[in-house]
Amino acid sequence: MDMKKTVIFLGVLSAFFSGTAIASRDMKQSGDVIPLRVLFEIPSLYEGKEVTVKGEVVGDIMKDGESFWINIEDDGFFIGIFIDSFQKEKIRYSGRYRIQGDIVKVSGIYHIHCPLHSGERDIHAEQLEIIESGYEKPEVIQSKKMIGSIVLGIITILILLYSHRKNIRKDNGGQQK
Amino acid sequence: MIPYFSREDIGPILHYLGKIIKGMGVLMLVPFVIGAINKEWGPSIDFLFTFLLSLSIGSALLLIFEEERDLNWRQGMSVVALCWIIAMFIGAVPLYLSGNYISYLDASFEAMSALATTGLVVVNDLDHMSYACNFWRHFMCFIGGQGIILVALTLFVRGGSVFKVYVGEAREEKIMPNIIQTARFIWLVSLTYLVIGTAILFAINLWRSISPGRALFHAICLFMAGWDTAGFAVQSQNVLYYHSPLIELVTAMFFLLGAVNFGVHYAVWTGKPRELLRNYELKIYMISILATFFLVCTGFIIQFQFPDFISFFRESFYQLISAHTGVGYSNITFHNFSYWSPLAILGLIIAMGLGGSSTSTSGGIKILRIGILLKGIKKELKILTSPGATVVVEKFHHIRDITIEDNHIKMAAIVTLLYITLYLTGGIIGVFYGYPFLSSLFESVSASANVGLSMGITSPFMPVGLKITYIIQMWVGRLEFLSVFVLFSFLLSLKSPE
Q1: Three-state secondary structure call for residue B106
Q2: Does B312 reach chain A within 8 Å, measured CB to CB?
Q3: Which are the contacts of A109, defined by CB distance < 8 A and separation ≥ 6?
Q4: Distance from CA of A3 to the nearest CA of B (A)
Q5: How high is the ipTM of this complex?
Q6: Would you put residue A127 in left (φ > 0), alpha (ψ -120 to 50) or beta?
Q7: Span A98-107, mean pLDDT?
Q8: Dihedrals φ, ψ of B467, to 5°?
Q9: At residue A91, what are phi and psi to the nearest 5 degrees?
Q10: What does the alpha-carbon distance between residue B60 and residue A161 come to, in Å, rounded to a whole number?
C-alpha cells in the first residue's frame, strides 16, 4: 500500500512539475517578448540572460567568420543580432528604401558588453523565426511635386532666356559704342 | 570697431549669393543622377525640383544684381555668413520633400549639421531612406567640410574677392602663395584620400558579403562623413551598425588624417615628412589626446563595467578621438553614457571643446590656439621671473618658425573666450528646457564644436527653441565668429544707416 501511495504521489508530483515546465515554456514561447527599449533602459536586469525580442531586419546581412550580423529595429531602438548561416537563410527581406524588412522574433543571450565581440551590446541568437514576412513597397510619386517641377522649369527657362537676350543686347550695345 | 555698411553693399552681396545659390543647385544633379540610376523616381523629382528652384532664384538674383564687382572685406565676410544659411535652406528642401523629417525646421537642422560637419541628426526612419537622399546628406558633409566657399572658389569666384571669402570660412592660412592654388591643393588631398579611403572600405564591405552596389555606397558615404569630420552614417546606428572593429580602425585613421592641418599634409606631400615630428600643433594635439584620455580613464576607475581591457579601450578611446577630432562617429548608442562617470563625460566635453587642428575639417577652439595660449603663459611667466631688461622671445614651429607676438596671444584668447561663451550659452539654454546640466553642456559643446556626439537630447522631439539654438551654434562655431559678427553689424547698420 505504501509503495502504491508513493508511486501515486511521485506521479502527481512529476505531473505537476512537467505541467509547470510546459506552462512556463509556453508562456515563454507565446509572449515574453521584451521591447528593445527595456533592454536599453534597464540593461543590467537582462545581462547574460536569455531574452526574446522582435523587430524589423534593417540594412545588410554582414559576414563575420562563419556567422553573420543582422540589425533589428523595434520602436526606434536597434540592436545587433549574431546569427548562424542556418538562421540567415530564413531572412528574405531586409528593410531599406521601398522594402519593408522581415519582422523576426529572436531568442538568445543578451550582453551589454559581449566578451566574444570586444564589448559590443548584442544578442547571440539561439532561435530565429520570421513572424511577418517583408515585402516590396510601391513608390508613390506625388503629382504636386511633378507639377511644381514643371512650373519651376518653365520659370527657369524664361529667366535664362531673358538673361541671355539681355546679355546679347548689352554686347550689341557695347559694339555700337 | 563695427564696419560701416551702406545700401550699396547689398548689390554685390546678393550678386555673389546668386552665384552660390546656382552652384548649390548644380550640386543637386549628383543625387539626382544617383536617384535615377537606382530608379528612385520620387527622390529624383525632389532633387530636380530643388535644382530648378535654386537655378531660378540664383539666375533671378544675377539678373537683378548683374554688376560683378570685387568684394570688399565686409561684403566678403557677409557673403560667407549668409551663404551658409542659404545653403542650409536649399540643402534642406530635398530632405524635407523626402518625408523623413517631421518639419522643414528639422530638415534645416540636418542640412546645417551636415554642412557644418557636425553630425547631430534628427532624421526619422533613416534605414528606409532613399539612396539619393542619403547620399545628399553625406555629400553636404563633404561640401561643408571642404568649405562652401572653397567649392565656389574653385568654380567661379575670381579676382580680389577670393581671399576675403576664404578667410571668412575660418581658414586664415594660405598653404600655397595663391588662394586658388591652396583651394586646389585641398581638393587634391581630399580627392586622393577619397579614392584610397573608399577603396579600402569598399574592400572590407565586400569581404563581409555586402552586395557590391551597397558596399560602394556605404564606403563612399562613410569616407565623406569621416574625412570631413561630420560623423553622419548611412544607417541609424552610425558606425555601431557594422559590428566591425576593422571598420572602426579604418574610419579612425581617416578622421585623424582629416583633423590634421592641410599645411602639414602639404609639407608631407612635398617631401618634408619631418614636419610631422616638428610641428608644434601636432605635438600639442598628441598631448591633448593623451591628457583627455587620461581623464576618461580616471573616470572609469570609479565604475569599471567592462569584461576586459579591449572592450573598455574600444568604447572609450573611439569616443574620445571621435570627440577630439570633431567627427562624431560612434560605436555605441547614447544609452551607454548612462554608465560613464561624470568625470569621463567631462573628458569627452573637454576633448570636443578643444577640437582639431587649424585649417583642417575639424571644429572647436582648435589646437593651435591652445598651443599659442600655452606659449603665451610661458612667455608671461618668463617675463615675471626674469630681470627687468631681459627680452623674452617664444617661438614655435608650425610649417615655418613663428615668433609669438602679443597679437597672436590676444586673438587666440578672444576666440577661445568666444567659444567658451558659446558652449556655456547653449548649455544654459538646455538647462532652461529642463535637461540636466552635464548633458546640456555635452550637447551644446558637440553642436558648437561641430562634433555630433549626443547624450540623447538631440532628437526630432526636442524643443523647437533648442533646435534653433543648436543650428545657430553649429553655424557660428563652423565660421569661427568673425564673418557672423560682420554680418550682424551689416544688418544693424541697415536698420540704422546713420
Answers
A1: helix
A2: yes
A3: A48, A49, A50, A51, A123, A124, A126
A4: 54
A5: 0.86
A6: beta
A7: 96
A8: -60, -45
A9: -80, 125
A10: 11
State residue B484's pLDDT score. 86
Q: Given this model, what pLDDT does residue B72 score?
A: 76
SS3 B212: helix
- Give percent of chain A with pLDDT exceeding 90: 65
Helices and strands per DSSP (H, E), number in chain A? 4, 7
Give the integer Cα–Cα distance in Å for A104 and A71. 11
Q: Do A58 and B209 touch (CB under 8 A)?
A: no
Q: Does the distance separating the beta carbons of B59 and A163 come in below 8 Å?
A: yes
**Residue B179 pLDDT:** 67
For residue A108, what are the β-bridge partners? A51, A125
Is the Cβ pair A97, B336 closer than 8 Å?
A: no
Rounded to an integer, what is the distance from CA B95 to the centroid of its chain? 20
Q: What are the residues whose beta carbons fall under 8 Å from the beta carbon of B87, sequence distance 6 or more?
A: B20, B24, B111, B115, B143, B144, B148
Question: Which positions 396-455 of B are in contact with A (Cβ < 8 Å)?
Answer: none
Q: What is the mean pLDDT of chain B?
A: 88
Q: What is the mean pLDDT of residues B34-57?
A: 95
Which site among A96, A100, A171 would you substitute to test the B interface, given the most B Cβ atoms closer than 10 Å to its Cβ? A96
**Alpha-carbon A41 to chain mean position:** 18
CB contact at 8 A, A86 and A74 = no
* Sheet strands (E) in B180-325: none
- Give which of B56, B100, B130 to mutate to test A binding, by max A Cβ within 10 Å: B56
Are A122 and A79 within 8 A, CB to CB? Answer: yes
Residue with cell 546668386: B18
Question: What type of residue is B72?
Answer: N
pLDDT at A89: 95
Confirm or reject contact between B334 and chain A (CB < 8 A).
Answer: no
Rg (CA), chain B: 22
Q: In the structure grid, which three cell numbers stand for residue B185, read together?
A: 591643393
Which one, of B197, B244, B202, lies nearest residue A65 by Cα?
B244
Residue with cell 618668463: B382
Distance between CA B128 and CA B375 in Å, rounded? 51
pLDDT of B219-232, one tens digit each? 999 999 988 888 89
Give start and end residues of each alpha helix (H) in B360-405: 367-385
Q: Determine the angle formed by the axes of helices B482-495 and B73-97, rounding to 10 degrees.
A: 100
Residues 55 to 94 of B: which have CB under 8 A from any A CB?
Answer: 55-56, 59-60, 62-63, 66
How far is residue B288's CA from residue B292's CA, in Å, rounded to a whole number?
A: 6
The amino acid occupying position A93 is: Y
Residue B284, C-alpha cell as written in the block: 600639442
Out of A41, A62, A78, whose CB is closest to B210? Answer: A62
* Beta-carbon separation of A97 and B207 below 8 A: no
Q: Please tell me what DSSP assigns to residue A95.
A: B
Chain B residues close to A155, C-beta within 8 Å: 52, 56
Rounded distance, CA B100 to CA B287, Å? 42
Instruction: Using CB atoms within 10 Å of the CB of residue B406, give its burial: 0 to 12 exposed, 13 to 18 middle, 19+ buried.
Output: exposed
Partners of residue A63 in chain B, C-beta under 8 Å: 207-209
